[in-house]
Q: What sequence folds into this?
């Protein structure tokens, strides 16, 4: 079975940092495009970043300048480093892995709460 697990969420004060991890089993993340998304209470899910091995990651405006993705192939894990967090960053964060010809694999979310 394919599983993606997002972890590393928690409560942080505004201005603080968190690093989320997306660890996969049943697939090799290096073979997929991996995206980070979030969904705030009462809002639609929004994309944050997309990364593919060998290419520069893309970031949406919500993530540019504060969020950075990286990966550890040996751990089959992709990270989302989030800096200078703001209360409006409070959301459930998800990772997803996708490649041409296959369905998108979504991970369980990680709750991030940013207090003011």
A:
């Amino acid at each position: 079975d394919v599983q993606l697990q997002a972890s590393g969420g928690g409560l942080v004060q505004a201005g603080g940092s968190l690093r989320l991890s997306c660890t996969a089993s049943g697939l090799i993340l290096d073979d997929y495009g991996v995206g980070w998304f979030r969904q705030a209470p009462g809002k639609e899910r929004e994309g944050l970043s997309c990364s593919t091995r060998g290419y520069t990651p893309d970031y949406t405006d919500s993530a540019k300048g504060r969020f950075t993705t990286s990966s550890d192939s040996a751990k089959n894990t992709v990270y989302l480093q989030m800096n200078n967090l703001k209360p409006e960053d409070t959301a459930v964060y998800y990772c997803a892995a996708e490649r041409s010809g296959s369905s998108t694999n979504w991970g369980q979310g990680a709750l991030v709460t940013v207090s003011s």
